[in-house]
Amino acid sequence: MRQSLLASKTLKETPKDADNISAALLLRGGFMDKLASGIYSYLPLGLRVLRKIETIIRDEMNAIGGQEVLLPVLHPIENWKTTGRDEMDVLYHIKAGSGKDFVLGATHEEIISPLAKKLIFSYRDLPLYLYQIQNKFRDEPRAKAGLLRGREFLMKDLYSFHANQEDLDEYYKKVTEAYFNIFNRIGLGRETFLTYASGGSFSKYSHEFQTACESGEDTIYFCNKCRVAVNKEIIEEQKICPECGGSELETKKSIEVGNIFKLGTKFSVPFDLNYLDEKGGKKDVVMGCYGIGPSRALGTIVELYHDERGIIWPESIAPFTTHLIALGESEDVRAKAEDIYKELVAKGIDVLFDDRDEMAGIKFADSDLLGIPYRVIVSEKALKENGVGLKKRSEKEEIIVSFDEVISKVK
Amino acid sequence: MRQSLLASKTLKETPKDADNISAALLLRGGFMDKLASGIYSYLPLGLRVLRKIETIIRDEMNAIGGQEVLLPVLHPIENWKTTGRDEMDVLYHIKAGSGKDFVLGATHEEIISPLAKKLIFSYRDLPLYLYQIQNKFRDEPRAKAGLLRGREFLMKDLYSFHANQEDLDEYYKKVTEAYFNIFNRIGLGRETFLTYASGGSFSKYSHEFQTACESGEDTIYFCNKCRVAVNKEIIEEQKICPECGGSELETKKSIEVGNIFKLGTKFSVPFDLNYLDEKGGKKDVVMGCYGIGPSRALGTIVELYHDERGIIWPESIAPFTTHLIALGESEDVRAKAEDIYKELVAKGIDVLFDDRDEMAGIKFADSDLLGIPYRVIVSEKALKENGVGLKKRSEKEEIIVSFDEVISKVK
User: Fold this and answer.
1) pTM of structure
2) How many whole angstroms separate alpha carbon B344 and alpha carbon B407?
3) Residue B100: which of A5, A36, A69 has the nearest Cβ?
4) Which residue of chain B is at minimal alpha-carbon distance from A7?
């Protein structure tokens, strides 16, 4: 992609209504635009990152047998009356002229449960794992955390359906592993901890995945021995690590990037979701639900990976892997940069080519702000040495490499 | 994918609330589920088709310089008050507890125009082409046409921004070509005609893309000489072909599968979307908008491609290209079918493997209903001839081919 054509403008100043550092950098870098509190438009740069996160999530969901579906945003209010959750504060309500009243999907148990009833009849139809990546809507009284708490936000929600609790327990472990695979792959692995949370009436605990981060709004209590954490709600009850019983827990600020929950029969009972077992007996389906917000993950990645000059994207989810920059107005530089651009594109490398008529200082500042992992600099100085400059966003040193080398070094 | 695991149940009977033949077949085949009038959940089979349609659309939008963005569903009512369109009947309104009033996006001119204002400053920023694939919401008084007229539906909407009318005119032609490429690639090309429609105040005509189809709700007036059509609104005014002036127009029932519109400055004026030209003069940006509904296209494809037994998917957008069916309970058949399945998967072929314990009659009926282009049948009879059966969904004849041949014949 040529930067001269890219639908994106970098801003020198942080917009006044940026909620936090990730929102500030994503707005300044032209990754997204704020429409209203907690509601953002994704520009091409931001959407590229979001799609890469989604692709990794899909990959890991498919690997554990998840089948992708797409459920509606408009939910008949009756579905929510069935569970009594129509009174939830965060629901957006719609009185439609055409007669039917709707709420906007804040979560999808009320839709997936009656849908599953059409797919599950006998034990042979179980287990079943359905997931989607869909917008969720929550009428948040305060939505001042950029992508970390939105009114409209993307969610990957997986629902599992089982013949019994043991089968749910086993799958719950598999999802836990898949979630860590996801967090590892998108760059959040090292700082993300399994965190014990309240389990409702069907299991002692549920689990959150909390990413330790100074700017987080949550607090976790971390056991250095077990590498797990406990959320605030649980710590107030028991004050010890649920794994080792130890009481030396370290307080960390954190962001909740995922959660998994054993629903048991909470939704299968009201929606009459049952199955015939091997002996022909009617049994309630046992359910689990598992969420990760791709947009919140995006915000969290920026909270963790930035410096004073801008974002430092992990390679796996960077909008482009290579930022090719032509410096100065020399014809030789222009021609060489064009050649390298075409070669990188031909090799299938995601390259953003800064072909703009801007000063070196502006190009470098923008490049630091955008945070693309590899920077390739074509300049008269480097051309004299028969090479180009190569610098990683995460490192300070620029090295001069030959034209052949640069193609093999960037991903 | 193993059919024994697929989240889908075929129905023998057409659901009572199926609106039309495409909805009936898509519901019976387990491609989707109806949540409410005009509101559907996509099951894995349906989502696979939808995603293939989307991929083709993206490909053609990118080829004409389109850059993908993702705009919100929740629109502040103020944006719609700016154009006076907040009074439109089809808007869903939300009174939010948190104070702000929203409408659900029925279209996105009210969002993209102020966004473009942040990207366009001078003539150097033009032209600009932004598109998205996003849900739209319309409070349709009657929504009884399956995917053909939904309350919640997917739309690809492209918006173009130009320095002047000539530039818009030129791009409008490019989009017209891109649209025909899309319709050709998804199987609607032969029956889809450029159709003259009302142009508003900025151009004499806009254009619809109408697919001739007996079950369509629209009527077009088709000129056999020019291969273009005129919509009802226009024909009532002029009664002649706008291209050749001829009056021998054939009436056809049709479905509107796309539309393109020269907006001129209709939205740039209220949103103060202007730019500085080469001489430093302030000019209004000239806009165009271009829509295709992937979900409506999906419904239209099924309206066109089916017989009394089920759907007949065009290969380009079929949920799977090959339906591998194992017949009977013989161990040899099972083992051979497993081998072929693994080989097809290894070759990257989209294969659905009917590994269920069902009678041949049920498997064939389901296969006809699902409409996958190539059917590979592993049976004792064919094994005796050292081969497998191969049948195209669109043809009657089954032929016996060798194991090697079958891999090369299916896509």
Assistant:
1) 0.97
2) 7
3) A36
4) B119
d(CA B48, CA B45): 5
Q: How many residues does the structure list for chain B?
A: 411
Chain A hits for B41, Cβ within 8 Å? 69-72, 111, 115
Q: How confident is the model at residue B403 (pLDDT cuts 50, 70, 90)?
A: confident
* CA A302/CA B53 separation, integer angstroms: 33
On the question of pLDDT at B95 being above 90, the answer is no
Per-residue pLDDT reduced to its tens digit, A118-149: 999 999 999 999 999 999 999 998 878 899 99
CB proximity B70 to A under 8 Å:
yes
| pLDDT tens digits for range B43-68 | 999 999 999 999 999 999 999 999 99
Per the structure block, which two tokens stand in for A155? Answer: 């969610």
A320-409 belongs to CATH 3.40.50.800: yes
Q: Strand ranges (DSSP E) for A163-308?
A: 192-198, 205-212, 218-223, 228-231, 249-264, 274-276, 282-284, 286-292, 306-307
CB A116 within 8 A of CB A52: no
H helical segments located in A239-293 = none
Residue A56 half-sphere exposure, CB side, CA atoms within 13 Å? 25
Residue B254's contacts (CB-CB under 8 Å, 6 or more residues apart) are B193, B195, B210, B211, B212, B213, B216, B218, B219, B220, B229
Mutating which of A4, A33, A357 best tests the B interface, going by the most B Cβ atoms within 10 A? A33
Q: Determine contact, residues B297/B133, Cβ cutoff 8 Å.
A: no
List chain A residues with CB under 8 Å of B65: 5
Average pLDDT across chain A, whole number:
95
Q: Classify domain A21-307 by CATH number.
A: 3.30.930.10
- Nearest chain B residue to A9, by CA: B119
DSSP symbols for A322-365: EEEEE-SS-HHHHHHHHHHHHHHHHTT--EEEE-SS--HHHHHH
CA distance B320 to chain A (A): 15
A9 inside 8 A of chain B by CB: yes
Q: CB neighbours of B250 closer than 8 A, spacing ≥ 6?
A: B221, B222, B223, B224
**DSSP codes, A354-405:** E-SS--HHHHHHHHHHHT-SEEEEE-HHHHHTTEEEEEETT-S-EEEEEHHH
Q: Give me the sign of the Cα torsion angle B222, B226, B231, B233.
A: negative
Is the separation of the CB atoms in B155 and B112 below 8 Å? Answer: no
Q: Please tell me the distance from the alpha carbon of residue B62 to that of residue B325, in angstroms, as a whole number.
A: 38
The residues with which A378 forms a beta bridge, in sequence order, are A326
The answer to whether A89 contacts chain B (CB < 8 Å) is: yes
pLDDT digits (tens, 9 = 90+) for B265-318: 999 999 999 999 999 999 999 999 999 999 999 999 999 999 999 999 999 999
Residues 6+ positions from A78 with CB-CB distance below 8 Å = none
Contact B8 A119 (CB under 8 A): yes
Radius of gyration of chain B (CA): 24
Half-sphere exposure of A22 (CA within 13 A, CB side): 25
CB of B49 less than 8 A from some CB of A:
no
Contact B72 A130 (CB under 8 A): no
With CA atoms as reference, report the closest residue to B323 among B357, B368, B278.
B368
CA distance A113 to A272: 9
Determine the pLDDT at residue A410. Answer: 85
C-alpha to C-alpha distance for A184 and B97, rounded to whole angstroms: 38
Going from N- to C-terminal start, the domains of chain B cover 21-307, 320-409
Residues of chain B with Cβ-Cβ distance to A118 below 8 Å are: 9, 33
Smallest CA–CA distance, residue B87 to chain A, in Å, is: 12
Is the predicted pLDDT of residue B99 greater than 80, yes or no?
A: no
C-alpha–C-alpha distance, residues A78 and A111, integer Å: 11
**Binary contact (A33, B128; C-beta < 8 A):** no
Give how far B307 is from chain A: nearest CA, Å: 26
